Amino acid sequence: MMKWNQLVGTYRIASNSTKFCRNDNLTHKDLMEELNRALNSDYRRVIKSDSFRRLQDKTQVFPLERNDFVRTRLTHSLEVAMHARDLLSEVIKGLRAKGIEEMELNSSYRLLETAALIHDIGNPPFGHFGEEAIRIWFAKNGEQQPEWETLTEQQKEDFLQFEGNAQTIRLLTKLHTDNGASQDGMKLTASTMDAVIKYTANSLQIEKGQLLTKKVGYFYSERTEFKRIKYATGTADRRHPLVFLLEAADDLAYTFSDIEDAYNYGLYSYRKLKSFIDEETKTNTFLEKKDSEAAAIQNFLRTTQQSVYTSASKAFVDNYDEILEGSFEQEIISEECDAVRCFNALKKFAYQHIFQTKEILDQEVLGFHIINRLLDEFVPVVLKYEKEPMNKYEERLFNNIPESAKQLYRKEAEDCREDEQNYYRLKMAVDFICNMTDGYAKKLHDTLFN
Predict the structure, then answer these.
(1) Where is the HD domain (predicted)?
(2) Domains in the chain and their CATH numbers?
(3) Distance CA 4, CA 394 (A)
């Protein structure tokens, strides 16, 4: 059984961190002060980071879109933070009604907010298609690199199964440098970082049908940091309980906002949505038009969202013991009710009538072409770094990679065999691209190759 006095603590993941908070050794007052200080510090570190600011120019659904009503990764993350707070509030009320009071859980609002702000921070440009572009490039071109055969199977799969969630852990523990002031990433608490670890599998352990292992949770390069996080929180190979709330908040945010943004963008009509929802839910009680069609959609989204809130928080409370045991293996938005059926119908509608529209697909193709060309050019160059001479063109190309990336490579490759150094050279290229915003990726591509 996981314990809240270990799940929510102040221990920071950094090589020079020696403080391991033993909450049971503190008075209630001292504990609250320690937790508040640590978790507020996490929040400030994230808000002030350049990685967080880059989210304002990273795609949520519409790549390279300049209309102000369309969400970016930044506005999406802020909405997830709002939803996460509301869900936690409902959960605390529900647990209190059952006579369960956990002071660390009551102090977790800031922790969840911070987790929401960083949950997409490692994603590459151009949304989830950016992740797919990286996977496709390595599937097509990895074996063409002579160094590919020097990698272990897990190292190869890290690129073939590339996942933004795992890149987030890499960014938080290594890539963030605070303008050169940090050697250990953001140095966030283990509790905050564990609250964004949705998957516990490495790239050789993927089982598509299982909640915790359907995607890569951490790369080979962060195996030590991952183990330290899980050891500090006591979660081992289980999910931190707050991940269930964060994932539900994420689902709520993107599902309803995608529908809203797409309507404002003109990708579907009120009649199309109404007909689809009625067919999927076998009822005509949703989307009642009393005023304008736009108002009807807004009212529908708001009321349905609130109903799903209630269902998700109730599911967490009802399955509280199983969640703390680590035996609960489904999402908390799963209740058999009209609101959740409607929620699932909206997801299906978004896939069929938003993500498959020509406007979205054309932009994804553009993003794919940009990432593909950047990898075409930069991968052969980074594989020469500190191994063989570069020609003048390669030197000028490599000059675009920041000094911090070269320093991280030297740190990671310092005690490695030559063949393992190739893995970290490839990491340098992928890290470089993942740190780009949509706009910077396009600008760099156009500057260098057009």
Answers:
(1) 73-255
(2) 4-233 (1.10.3210.10), 241-355 (1.10.3410.10), 359-449 (no CATH)
(3) 52
